[in-house]
Amino acid sequence: IVVTGSDDHLWKMWALPDGNILMTGEGHTDWVSGCCFRPSGTQLVTSSGDTTVRIWDLSRRGCILTLKGHARAVQDCSWHSHGDFVASASMDSTSKIWDVNSERCRYTLRGHKDSVNSIEFLPFSSTVLTSSADKTLSLWDSRTVSRLF
Q1: Is 119 domain-assigned?
Q2: Which letter does DSSP use for residue 126 in this model?
Q3: What is the pLDDT of residues 80-135, one digit of tens each?
Q4: What's the pTM?
Q5: How far, rounded to the nearest angstrom, does the alpha carbon of residue 120 sit from its chain's CA centroid?
């Protein structure tokens, strides 16, 4: 199974190798830039040009949470390996760590001088890797919001 985002504001889940569409998600009002499965496989997080991050429940086939707080398009998203946190990277030069249980932004990572284009939690750690249009990579401790590198 693979999930893709598109300029048509939708995400689609595809079965491999036959290419059948298993599910389509509607709700974003601009392009879908990132898609990432929750480690348990029961949910999906998406990021969008509409400045939001959305959590989708795959069994309910719908959006269960919309996270708002970025000032510009959100370029990428990632789940923490424990499944309680989501990270997002935005064209507003920030990244955010969202607490899915409390449904709020826990931390905002500031330090890049241009769009943050990708974000990823390192497996089984509190370390987050970001890459930016300012031509830098940064490692962050998501517990203390400090830049490690």
Answers
A1: yes
A2: S
A3: 999 999 999 999 999 999 999 999 999 999 999 999 999 999 999 999 999 999 99
A4: 0.94
A5: 9
Q: Whose structure tokens read 């999906």?
A: 44
Q: 38-89, pLDDT tens digit by residue?
A: 999 999 999 999 999 999 999 999 999 999 999 999 999 999 999 999 999 9
Rounded CA gap, 119 and 75, in Å?
9
Distance from C-alpha of 33 to C-alpha of 42, rounded to nearest angstrom: 20
Q: Domain total for the chain?
A: 1
Contacts of 28 (CB under 8 A, 6+ apart): 9, 10, 11, 46, 48, 49, 50, 52, 54
Structural domain of 36: 28-141
Neighbours of 108 (CB within 10 A): 14
- CA neighbor of 113 nearest in space, from 136, 97, 130: 136
